[in-house]
Design brief:
39% strand, seven-stranded mixed sheet, 2 domains, binds 2-acetamido-2-deoxy-beta-D-glucopyranose, Immunoglobulin-like, Ig-like_fold, mainly beta, 4 helices
Length: 313
């Protein structure tokens, strides 16, 4: 009996993990915006992945499934098994029951490796381990090719440039490795305490480390604003920001004093999101004066007009 055993670890982007809110995060957008003085301006900051939905079913939002693609005797795709936390694993083919399995602890220890006992010729194929996290909208998969041989001399394992290939002896046991220890696959609770959005402001000439915090928003509903601008209702953010995934910063009436660098940070520690959007705001001359009494009602999704927006560095 041979037990092949390889650790295939998923990519672990450096942005994930224990980041504190002072860490800069990944810049997903950076642009210069010029808007007329006196206008109602919006600096956009939206991310559907930051939408705070109560995970009532908790763990059911996570799923692992193993599939196999066979090319002989004819092409076929088959679901081998699937599992969610709190539910028994489902083995699809009755021949595999008791022979093919995952650890019941998979969603606690992050080891989703597939164990196949008493390997038969028809086990040959390309296996995929698929991890879905619906709440975080994260989907990952890895492929492993399994070949079966009758000769112990031909047993081997290697990386073919795309996937692990295992050639195993008929009748032996094999572990198809699939390990992902990122907390998001292993823990289910307390998401709401780990979601934060905040805006920073840097006036011209001010160093990045002296940027001024404008506002902190928490998915729990808590909000802290700093400085007088929010209280004077000069700046605002939709009170339903976490419901809409829209953290755009609105200015009631843009003034030349508002120029500078604005940064929107979105942190979702549980899902591993750390995004930063940066806007260099310039205030141009006012557009043709409109009597303020007839100004149209405020719309929450106004984007700066494309002609006045310069995209990117
Ligand atoms: C994962 O689980 C398999 C099967 O239970 C086991 O053989 C293997 O040692 C485990 N791998 C790790 C990295 O824990
Ligand atoms: C494994 O099987 C595939 C498909 O039959 C074949 O193309 C490949 O050469 C085999 N690899 C090994 C090392 O046996
Ligand atoms: C944005 O403004 C900065 C500073 O004025 C400038 O260095 C940069 O080239 C501008 N980027 C674009 C795309 O205009």
């Amino acid at each position: 009996m041979t037990l092949f055993h390889i650790f295939a670890l998923f990519f672990l982007p450096e942005v994930l993990g224990q980041g504190s809110s002072s860490r800069p995060g990944v810049v997903v957008e950076a642009r210069n915006i010029t808007l007329p003085a006196g206008s109602r301006a919006v600096l956009p900051c939206r991310s559907p992945r930051m939408v705070w939905t109560q995970d009532r079913l908790k763990d059911r939002q996570r799923v692992v499934h193993w599939d196999v693609v066979r090319s002989s005797p004819e092409y076929s795709v088959e679901r081998v098994l699937d599992m969610s936390p709190g539910a028994k694993q489902r083995v699809y083919n009755s021949f595999n029951k008791g022979r093919v399995s995952l650890s019941e602890e998979a969603f606690n220890d992050g080891n989703f490796s597939l164990v196949i006992n008493n390997v038969v010729t028809t086990d040959k194929g390309v296996y995929t381990c698929n991890l879905h996290h619906h709440y975080c909208q994260v989907h990952q998969n890895i492929q492993i090719q399994l070949n079966v041989t009758k000769s112990a001399r031909k047993e081997r394992r290697y990386w073919d440039g795309e996937k692990t290939v295992l050639v195993v002896l008929l009748g032996s046991s094999v572990v198809l490795p699939c390990v992902n220890r990122r907390p998001l696959w292993r823990e289910g609770a307390q998401e709401e305490q780990q979601q934060v959005a905040h805006w920073d402001y840097q006036a011209p000439g001010v160093r990045p480390d002296r940027a001024e915090r404008l506002v902190d928003l928490y998915a729990s509903g808590e909000r802290r604003d700093y400085g007088p601008l929010f209280r004077q209702h000069k700046m605002s953010i939709d009170p339903d920001a976490f419901t809409l995934g829209d953290f755009s910063l609105s200015f009631a009436e843009l003034s030349p004093a508002d120029i500078g660098l604005y940064s929107c940070f979105l942190h979702h520690h549980y899902c591993g999101i750390q995004e930063r959007r940066i806007f260099r705001l310039t205030v141009g001359p006012p557009t043709a004066a409109k009597p303020s009494t007839t100004r149209p009602p405020i719309q929450s999704n106004d984007l700066p007009e494309p002609s006045k927006t310069t995209s990117n560095y």
